[in-house]
């Protein structure tokens, strides 16, 4: 999660109060910040945004361009604008894309490691995690309960 400038710094009383809401008034401030727990809790959607972007070749489609608008990407992918807007917003929020003048471009991280064919392409790794390990980890509670 990236600080957009109008958010309190993680671990500060203001950030903690904002994160836990009105319950703070009833019990006082917690002794530790819940923000790391909150970040862990959204790990699933962060990974699925990465895996989906990789599967539809979002990073490859943006590589070497001056960026693309949501409308342009929707047209390239043959899908409606709204799902693309959600995907690029999610990818930007986790540091994989940057928005510049209404256009989305790969971040340095995505450009180095998520563009197909580049020397350090992680695409196969992401695909393997998504297809093989994520479904198995999704059954962890069942596995623990049944041995």
From TrEMBL:
<dbReference type="InterPro" id="IPR036390">
    <property type="entry name" value="WH_DNA-bd_sf"/>
</dbReference>
<protein>
    <submittedName>
        <fullName>Methyltransferase</fullName>
    </submittedName>
</protein>
<dbReference type="Pfam" id="PF08100">
    <property type="entry name" value="Dimerisation"/>
</dbReference>
<dbReference type="InterPro" id="IPR012967">
    <property type="entry name" value="COMT_dimerisation"/>
</dbReference>
<keyword id="KW-0489">Methyltransferase</keyword>
<dbReference type="InterPro" id="IPR036388">
    <property type="entry name" value="WH-like_DNA-bd_sf"/>
</dbReference>
<keyword id="KW-0808">Transferase</keyword>
<dbReference type="GO" id="GO:0008168">
    <property type="term" value="F:methyltransferase activity"/>
</dbReference>
<dbReference type="GO" id="GO:0046983">
    <property type="term" value="F:protein dimerization activity"/>
</dbReference>
<feature type="domain" description="O-methyltransferase dimerisation">
    <location>
        <begin position="38"/>
        <end position="115"/>
    </location>
</feature>
<dbReference type="GO" id="GO:0032259">
    <property type="term" value="P:methylation"/>
</dbReference>
